[in-house]
Protein backbone atom coordinates (compact mmCIF):
# COMPACT_ATOMS: atom_id res chain seq x y z
CA UNK A 1 0.00 0.00 0.00
CA UNK A 2 1.23 3.49 -0.73
CA UNK A 3 2.61 5.38 2.27
CA UNK A 4 0.29 8.35 1.84
CA UNK A 5 -2.66 6.00 1.78
CA UNK A 6 -1.35 4.31 4.91
CA UNK A 7 -1.19 7.66 6.68
CA UNK A 8 -4.69 8.51 5.55
CA UNK A 9 -5.98 5.26 6.96
CA UNK A 10 -3.99 5.56 10.17
CA UNK A 11 -5.49 8.92 10.99
CA UNK A 12 -8.84 8.08 9.56
CA UNK A 13 -8.75 11.08 7.29
CA UNK A 14 -11.92 11.45 5.38
CA UNK A 15 -12.73 13.25 2.23
CA UNK A 16 -13.25 16.95 2.76
CA UNK A 17 -16.93 16.83 1.83
CA UNK A 18 -17.59 14.11 4.35
CA UNK A 19 -15.71 16.04 7.00
CA UNK A 20 -17.65 19.22 6.32
CA UNK A 21 -20.89 17.31 6.57
CA UNK A 22 -19.86 15.77 9.85
CA UNK A 23 -18.67 19.08 11.22
CA UNK A 24 -21.95 20.73 10.29
CA UNK A 25 -23.98 18.04 12.02
CA UNK A 26 -21.78 18.11 15.14
CA UNK A 27 -22.02 21.91 15.29
CA UNK A 28 -25.76 21.60 15.08
CA UNK A 29 -25.93 19.08 17.88
CA UNK A 30 -23.50 21.08 20.05
CA UNK A 31 -25.76 24.06 19.53
CA UNK A 32 -28.75 22.02 20.62
CA UNK A 33 -26.87 20.72 23.65
CA UNK A 34 -25.85 24.25 24.58
CA UNK A 35 -29.48 25.35 24.40
CA UNK A 36 -30.50 22.38 26.59
CA UNK A 37 -27.77 23.28 29.03
CA UNK A 38 -29.00 26.83 29.27
CA UNK A 39 -32.44 25.56 30.15
CA UNK A 40 -30.91 23.21 32.71
CA UNK A 41 -28.90 26.11 34.16
CA UNK A 42 -32.04 28.19 34.53
CA UNK A 43 -33.70 25.32 36.33
CA UNK A 44 -30.79 24.97 38.72
CA UNK A 45 -30.97 28.67 39.49
CA UNK A 46 -34.73 28.63 39.89
CA UNK A 47 -34.53 25.63 42.19
CA UNK A 48 -31.74 27.16 44.23
CA UNK A 49 -33.38 30.57 44.64
CA UNK A 50 -36.11 29.91 47.20
CA UNK A 51 -33.96 27.71 49.49
CA UNK A 52 -31.29 30.34 50.11
CA UNK A 53 -30.05 32.46 52.20
CA UNK A 54 -28.58 29.91 54.63
CA UNK A 55 -24.85 29.43 54.71
CA UNK A 56 -25.31 25.76 53.84
CA UNK A 57 -27.09 26.65 50.66
CA UNK A 58 -24.33 29.06 49.70
CA UNK A 59 -21.79 26.29 50.20
CA UNK A 60 -23.97 23.98 48.17
CA UNK A 61 -24.31 26.43 45.30
CA UNK A 62 -20.56 26.89 45.42
CA UNK A 63 -20.23 23.13 45.15
CA UNK A 64 -22.67 23.24 42.26
CA UNK A 65 -20.62 25.85 40.55
CA UNK A 66 -17.44 23.87 41.06
CA UNK A 67 -19.10 20.74 39.71
CA UNK A 68 -20.39 22.72 36.77
CA UNK A 69 -16.93 24.07 36.06
CA UNK A 70 -15.56 20.56 36.33
CA UNK A 71 -18.09 19.34 33.75
CA UNK A 72 -17.23 22.24 31.50
CA UNK A 73 -13.55 21.40 31.72
CA UNK A 74 -14.21 17.75 30.92
CA UNK A 75 -16.38 18.72 27.98
CA UNK A 76 -13.70 21.04 26.71
CA UNK A 77 -11.14 18.24 26.91
CA UNK A 78 -13.47 15.80 25.20
CA UNK A 79 -14.24 18.17 22.36
CA UNK A 80 -10.58 18.80 21.99
CA UNK A 81 -9.80 15.12 21.65
CA UNK A 82 -12.16 14.99 18.74
CA UNK A 83 -9.87 17.32 16.88
CA UNK A 84 -7.65 14.50 15.85
CA UNK A 85 -3.94 14.25 16.50
CA UNK A 86 -3.33 14.62 12.78
CA UNK A 87 -5.30 17.87 12.69
CA UNK A 88 -3.29 19.21 15.64
CA UNK A 89 -0.01 18.50 13.88
CA UNK A 90 -1.35 19.94 10.65
CA UNK A 91 -2.28 23.15 12.43
CA UNK A 92 0.89 23.37 14.53
CA UNK A 93 3.26 22.68 11.66
CA UNK A 94 1.73 25.19 9.29
CA UNK A 95 4.84 27.38 9.12
CA UNK A 96 7.16 24.47 8.49
CA UNK A 97 4.79 22.94 5.96
CA UNK A 98 4.36 26.17 4.03
CA UNK A 99 8.10 26.61 3.78
CA UNK A 100 9.15 22.98 3.32
CA UNK A 101 6.39 21.94 0.93
CA UNK A 102 6.78 25.14 -1.01
CA UNK A 103 10.46 24.46 -1.59
CA UNK A 104 9.82 20.81 -2.33
CA UNK A 105 7.13 21.63 -4.85
CA UNK A 106 9.45 24.09 -6.56
CA UNK A 107 12.09 21.42 -6.73
CA UNK A 108 9.74 18.85 -8.18
CA UNK A 109 8.57 21.37 -10.75
CA UNK A 110 12.12 22.35 -11.72
CA UNK A 111 13.42 18.84 -12.18
CA UNK A 112 11.62 16.29 -14.25
CA UNK A 113 13.88 13.42 -13.52
CA UNK A 114 15.45 12.30 -10.28
CA UNK A 115 19.15 12.86 -10.84
CA UNK A 116 22.25 13.86 -8.87
CA UNK A 117 21.44 17.58 -9.14
CA UNK A 118 17.96 16.95 -7.83
CA UNK A 119 19.40 15.25 -4.74
CA UNK A 120 21.85 18.09 -4.21
CA UNK A 121 19.06 20.64 -4.18
CA UNK A 122 16.94 18.40 -1.98
CA UNK A 123 19.82 18.27 0.48
CA UNK A 124 19.67 22.05 0.73
CA UNK A 125 15.92 22.07 1.26
CA UNK A 126 16.24 19.58 4.13
CA UNK A 127 19.14 21.43 5.74
CA UNK A 128 17.22 24.70 5.53
CA UNK A 129 14.41 22.99 7.48
CA UNK A 130 16.94 22.34 10.30
CA UNK A 131 17.00 18.61 9.75
CA UNK A 132 20.73 18.63 10.59
CA UNK A 133 23.60 17.86 8.25
CA UNK A 134 24.39 14.33 9.47
CA UNK A 135 20.75 13.34 9.35
CA UNK A 136 20.33 14.84 5.90
CA UNK A 137 23.32 12.86 4.60
CA UNK A 138 21.87 9.61 5.99
CA UNK A 139 18.54 10.48 4.54
CA UNK A 140 19.85 11.29 1.05
CA UNK A 141 21.79 8.01 0.96
CA UNK A 142 18.69 6.06 1.88
CA UNK A 143 16.57 7.97 -0.60
CA UNK A 144 18.98 7.25 -3.42
CA UNK A 145 18.85 3.54 -2.63
CA UNK A 146 15.07 3.53 -2.43
CA UNK A 147 14.65 5.48 -5.66
CA UNK A 148 16.91 3.00 -7.41
CA UNK A 149 15.18 0.01 -5.84
CA UNK A 150 11.74 1.20 -6.91
CA UNK A 151 13.05 2.47 -10.21
CA UNK A 152 11.53 5.90 -9.66
CA UNK A 153 12.25 8.32 -12.47
CA UNK A 154 9.60 10.98 -12.06
CA UNK A 155 10.25 13.66 -9.42
CA UNK A 156 6.55 13.75 -8.55
CA UNK A 157 6.72 10.25 -7.16
CA UNK A 158 9.69 11.02 -4.99
CA UNK A 159 7.68 13.12 -2.50
CA UNK A 160 6.06 10.05 -1.09
CA UNK A 161 9.39 8.27 -0.69
CA UNK A 162 10.75 11.32 1.12
CA UNK A 163 7.86 11.30 3.57
CA UNK A 164 8.31 7.61 4.24
CA UNK A 165 12.04 8.01 4.79
CA UNK A 166 11.46 10.87 7.23
CA UNK A 167 9.53 8.49 9.46
CA UNK A 168 12.19 5.78 9.05
CA UNK A 169 14.96 8.22 9.88
CA UNK A 170 13.14 9.28 13.01
CA UNK A 171 12.73 5.78 14.34
CA UNK A 172 16.15 4.59 13.11
CA UNK A 173 16.87 1.02 14.17
CA UNK A 174 13.87 0.99 16.43
CA UNK A 175 11.61 -0.30 13.70
CA UNK A 176 8.60 -0.70 15.96
CA UNK A 177 7.68 2.84 15.00
CA UNK A 178 5.51 3.37 18.04
CA UNK A 179 4.86 6.60 19.86
CA UNK A 180 7.15 6.79 22.89
CA UNK A 181 4.83 8.05 25.58
CA UNK A 182 5.82 9.27 29.02
CA UNK A 183 7.16 6.72 31.41
CA UNK A 184 4.42 7.00 34.00
CA UNK A 185 4.31 4.52 36.84
CA UNK A 186 0.79 3.12 37.00
CA UNK A 187 0.78 2.15 40.64
CA UNK A 188 2.39 4.73 42.84
CA UNK A 189 3.81 8.18 42.46
CA UNK A 190 5.64 9.21 39.28
CA UNK A 191 8.00 12.17 39.37
CA UNK A 192 8.78 14.18 36.26
CA UNK A 193 11.58 16.74 36.38
CA UNK A 194 11.66 19.59 33.86
CA UNK A 195 14.97 21.19 32.91
CA UNK A 196 16.17 23.62 30.27
CA UNK A 197 17.52 27.10 29.58
CA UNK A 198 15.55 30.30 30.26
CA UNK A 199 12.30 30.94 28.50
CA UNK A 200 12.07 27.70 26.53
CA UNK A 201 8.61 26.82 27.84
CA UNK A 202 9.19 24.62 30.92
CA UNK A 203 6.48 26.14 33.10
CA UNK A 204 3.96 26.37 30.26
CA UNK A 205 4.59 22.73 29.36
CA UNK A 206 4.03 21.73 33.00
CA UNK A 207 0.69 23.53 32.95
CA UNK A 208 -0.36 21.89 29.69
CA UNK A 209 0.79 18.45 30.80
CA UNK A 210 -0.97 18.80 34.15
CA UNK A 211 -4.17 19.54 32.24
CA UNK A 212 -3.66 16.55 29.95
CA UNK A 213 -2.91 14.12 32.80
CA UNK A 214 -5.75 15.45 34.93
CA UNK A 215 -8.22 15.00 32.10
CA UNK A 216 -7.01 11.39 31.89
CA UNK A 217 -8.11 11.01 35.51
CA UNK A 218 -4.72 11.34 37.21
CA UNK A 219 -4.18 13.08 40.51
CA UNK A 220 -1.51 15.64 39.62
CA UNK A 221 0.61 17.95 41.81
CA UNK A 222 3.13 20.62 40.90
CA UNK A 223 6.39 21.56 42.64
CA UNK A 224 7.56 25.17 42.36
CA UNK A 225 11.27 24.37 42.05
CA UNK A 226 12.07 27.65 40.30
CA UNK A 227 12.78 29.75 43.36
CA UNK A 228 15.18 31.97 41.44
CA UNK A 229 13.33 33.99 38.81
CA UNK A 230 11.05 36.75 40.10
CA UNK A 231 7.44 35.76 39.58
CA UNK A 232 8.21 32.13 38.73
CA UNK A 233 6.36 30.68 41.75
CA UNK A 234 3.31 32.84 41.04
CA UNK A 235 3.37 31.80 37.37
CA UNK A 236 3.19 28.13 38.37
CA UNK A 237 0.42 28.92 40.86
CA UNK A 238 -1.62 30.53 38.09
CA UNK A 239 -1.29 27.30 36.10
CA UNK A 240 -2.21 25.29 39.20
CA UNK A 241 -5.40 27.35 39.63
CA UNK A 242 -6.24 27.14 35.97
CA UNK A 243 -5.89 23.38 35.83
CA UNK A 244 -7.22 22.78 39.33
CA UNK A 245 -4.19 21.05 40.86
CA UNK A 246 -2.16 21.73 44.02
CA UNK A 247 1.17 23.52 43.94
CA UNK A 248 3.82 22.93 46.62
CA UNK A 249 5.99 26.01 47.10
CA UNK A 250 8.49 27.70 49.38
CA UNK A 251 9.32 31.36 49.32
CA UNK A 252 11.50 32.94 46.65
CA UNK A 253 15.20 32.24 47.07
CA UNK A 254 14.67 28.92 48.91
CA UNK A 255 16.74 25.83 48.10
CA UNK A 256 15.04 24.10 45.13
CA UNK A 257 16.08 20.69 46.46
CA UNK A 258 14.18 21.44 49.69
CA UNK A 259 11.05 22.42 47.72
CA UNK A 260 11.19 19.20 45.75
CA UNK A 261 11.74 17.19 48.96
CA UNK A 262 8.62 18.72 50.53
CA UNK A 263 6.64 18.30 47.33
CA UNK A 264 7.45 14.58 47.27
CA UNK A 265 6.32 14.18 50.90
CA UNK A 266 3.10 16.08 50.17
CA UNK A 267 2.48 14.07 46.98
CA UNK A 268 2.99 10.81 48.88
CA UNK A 269 0.69 11.79 51.70
CA UNK A 270 -2.02 12.95 49.30
CA UNK A 271 -1.74 9.85 47.15
CA UNK A 272 -0.86 11.81 44.03
CA UNK A 273 -0.19 9.91 40.82
CA UNK A 274 2.15 12.38 39.17
CA UNK A 275 4.36 15.16 40.52
CA UNK A 276 5.59 17.63 37.90
CA UNK A 277 8.67 19.56 39.09
CA UNK A 278 9.50 22.98 37.68
CA UNK A 279 13.09 24.25 37.84
CA UNK A 280 14.73 27.59 37.09
CA UNK A 281 16.01 28.17 33.60
CA UNK A 282 19.76 27.88 33.45
CA UNK A 283 22.40 28.27 30.82
CA UNK A 284 24.05 24.99 30.06
CA UNK A 285 27.53 26.43 30.65
CA UNK A 286 26.96 27.52 34.27
CA UNK A 287 28.58 24.72 36.25
CA UNK A 288 27.19 25.59 39.70
CA UNK A 289 23.64 25.74 38.36
CA UNK A 290 24.08 22.42 36.62
CA UNK A 291 25.32 20.98 39.93
CA UNK A 292 22.21 22.31 41.62
CA UNK A 293 20.15 20.28 39.17
CA UNK A 294 22.12 17.18 39.99
CA UNK A 295 21.34 17.78 43.67
CA UNK A 296 17.62 18.07 42.96
CA UNK A 297 17.79 14.84 41.02
CA UNK A 298 19.63 13.07 43.86
CA UNK A 299 16.92 14.10 46.32
CA UNK A 300 14.26 12.62 44.06
CA UNK A 301 16.25 9.41 43.59
CA UNK A 302 16.72 9.05 47.34
CA UNK A 303 13.05 9.59 48.18
CA UNK A 304 11.51 7.29 45.58
CA UNK A 305 13.25 4.26 44.15
CA UNK A 306 13.23 4.40 40.37
CA UNK A 307 12.45 8.13 40.28
CA UNK A 308 12.62 10.51 38.54
CA UNK A 309 10.57 8.60 36.01
CA UNK A 310 11.35 11.21 33.42
CA UNK A 311 13.85 14.04 33.17
CA UNK A 312 12.43 16.13 30.37
CA UNK A 313 14.64 18.66 28.68
CA UNK A 314 12.58 21.41 27.15
CA UNK A 315 14.03 22.84 23.94
CA UNK A 316 12.69 25.79 22.00
CA UNK A 317 12.27 24.72 18.38
CA UNK A 318 12.73 28.29 17.21
CA UNK A 319 16.35 28.36 18.42
CA UNK A 320 17.40 25.89 15.75
CA UNK A 321 20.74 24.15 15.95
CA UNK A 322 21.58 25.82 19.30
CA UNK A 323 19.03 23.46 20.80
CA UNK A 324 21.37 20.61 19.87
CA UNK A 325 24.22 22.01 21.97
CA UNK A 326 21.83 22.56 24.89
CA UNK A 327 20.74 18.95 24.63
CA UNK A 328 24.34 17.71 24.66
CA UNK A 329 25.33 19.66 27.80
CA UNK A 330 22.17 18.98 29.73
CA UNK A 331 22.33 15.29 29.09
CA UNK A 332 25.87 15.28 30.51
CA UNK A 333 24.70 16.93 33.75
CA UNK A 334 21.50 14.95 34.29
CA UNK A 335 20.35 11.84 32.48
CA UNK A 336 17.81 13.41 30.19
CA UNK A 337 15.23 10.76 29.35
CA UNK A 338 13.21 12.70 26.82
CA UNK A 339 12.85 15.97 24.99
CA UNK A 340 9.95 18.37 24.93
CA UNK A 341 10.21 20.43 21.79
CA UNK A 342 8.20 23.56 22.43
CA UNK A 343 7.05 26.27 20.00
CA UNK A 344 7.07 24.03 16.92
CA UNK A 345 4.21 26.22 15.76
CA UNK A 346 6.50 29.24 15.83
CA UNK A 347 9.16 27.98 13.44
CA UNK A 348 9.43 27.14 9.77
CA UNK A 349 12.22 24.74 10.67
CA UNK A 350 10.45 21.82 12.30
CA UNK A 351 13.06 19.44 10.90
CA UNK A 352 14.95 19.88 14.18
CA UNK A 353 12.82 17.02 15.59
CA UNK A 354 14.59 14.57 13.31
CA UNK A 355 18.05 15.93 14.06
CA UNK A 356 17.51 15.61 17.81
CA UNK A 357 16.32 12.05 17.65
CA UNK A 358 18.78 10.91 15.04
CA UNK A 359 21.91 12.64 16.28
CA UNK A 360 21.37 12.59 20.04
CA UNK A 361 19.38 9.41 20.31
CA UNK A 362 17.02 11.00 22.83
CA UNK A 363 13.34 10.51 22.06
CA UNK A 364 11.17 13.56 21.53
CA UNK A 365 8.33 12.74 23.92
CA UNK A 366 6.17 15.85 23.70
CA UNK A 367 5.81 18.74 21.32
CA UNK A 368 4.34 22.18 21.93
CA UNK A 369 2.15 23.14 19.00
CA UNK A 370 0.79 26.43 20.30
CA UNK A 371 0.16 28.52 23.39
CA UNK A 372 -3.24 27.09 24.34
CA UNK A 373 -3.58 24.68 27.25
CA UNK A 374 -4.50 21.90 24.82
CA UNK A 375 -1.57 22.51 22.46
CA UNK A 376 0.69 19.80 23.84
CA UNK A 377 0.90 16.47 22.05
CA UNK A 378 2.83 13.26 22.41
CA UNK A 379 5.25 13.21 19.53
CA UNK A 380 4.09 10.91 16.78
CA UNK A 381 6.43 10.72 13.77
CA UNK A 382 3.61 9.66 11.46
CA UNK A 383 1.45 12.60 12.53
CA UNK A 384 4.49 14.86 12.16
CA UNK A 385 5.06 13.73 8.59
CA UNK A 386 1.37 14.13 7.89
CA UNK A 387 1.69 17.69 9.24
CA UNK A 388 4.50 18.33 6.75
CA UNK A 389 2.74 16.86 3.72
CA UNK A 390 -0.89 17.46 4.66
CA UNK A 391 -1.80 19.34 1.48
CA UNK A 392 -0.45 16.60 -0.76
CA UNK A 393 -1.87 13.79 1.37
CA UNK A 394 -5.32 15.36 1.62
CA UNK A 395 -5.46 15.55 -2.17
CA UNK A 396 -3.99 12.12 -2.62
CA UNK A 397 -7.13 9.98 -3.10
CA UNK A 398 -8.46 12.28 -5.82
CA UNK A 399 -5.27 11.88 -7.80
CA UNK A 400 -5.47 8.13 -7.45
CA UNK A 401 -8.99 8.04 -8.81
CA UNK A 402 -8.03 10.20 -11.78
CA UNK A 403 -5.16 7.84 -12.54
N1 LIG B 1 3.78 29.52 20.43
C1 LIG B 1 4.16 28.81 21.48
N2 LIG B 1 4.56 29.45 22.59
C2 LIG B 1 4.94 28.71 23.64
C3 LIG B 1 4.91 27.28 23.61
N3 LIG B 1 5.36 26.84 24.82
C4 LIG B 1 5.64 27.93 25.54
N4 LIG B 1 5.41 29.07 24.86
C5 LIG B 1 5.62 30.46 25.30
O1 LIG B 1 6.97 30.65 25.67
C6 LIG B 1 7.09 31.65 26.69
C7 LIG B 1 7.99 31.15 27.80
O2 LIG B 1 7.36 30.10 28.46
P1 LIG B 1 7.69 29.64 29.97
O3 LIG B 1 6.90 28.43 30.22
O4 LIG B 1 7.55 30.76 30.92
O5 LIG B 1 9.22 29.26 29.83
P2 LIG B 1 10.21 28.74 30.98
O6 LIG B 1 11.14 27.78 30.35
O7 LIG B 1 9.46 28.27 32.14
O8 LIG B 1 10.99 30.10 31.31
P3 LIG B 1 11.89 30.42 32.61
O9 LIG B 1 11.11 29.97 33.80
O10 LIG B 1 12.07 31.90 32.57
O11 LIG B 1 13.17 29.70 32.44
C8 LIG B 1 5.66 31.94 27.11
O12 LIG B 1 5.26 33.14 26.53
C9 LIG B 1 4.85 30.77 26.56
O13 LIG B 1 3.52 31.12 26.27
C10 LIG B 1 4.47 26.64 22.39
O14 LIG B 1 4.43 25.40 22.25
N5 LIG B 1 4.11 27.46 21.37
MG1 LIG C 1 9.57 28.74 34.15
From TrEMBL:
Basic and acidic residues: compositionally biased ranges: 21-31
SUPFAM superfamilies, A to Z: Domain of the SRP/SRP receptor G-proteins, P-loop containing nucleoside triphosphate hydrolases
Primary site of residence: membrane
CDD domains: FtsY (cd17874)
EC number: 3.6.5.4
Domain SRP54-type proteins GTP-binding: 363-376
Acidic residues: compositionally biased ranges: 33-45
Membrane topology listed for this record: Peripheral membrane protein
Enzymatic reactions: GTP + H2O = GDP + phosphate + H(+)
Similarity section: Belongs to the GTP-binding SRP family. FtsY subfamily.
Protein role: Involved in targeting and insertion of nascent membrane proteins into the cytoplasmic membrane. Acts as a receptor for the complex formed by the signal recognition particle (SRP) and the ribosome-nascent chain (RNC).
Assembly notes: Part of the signal recognition particle protein translocation system, which is composed of SRP and FtsY.
Name the UniProt record assigns to this protein: Signal recognition particle receptor FtsY
Organism expressing this protein natively: Thalassobacillus hwangdonensis
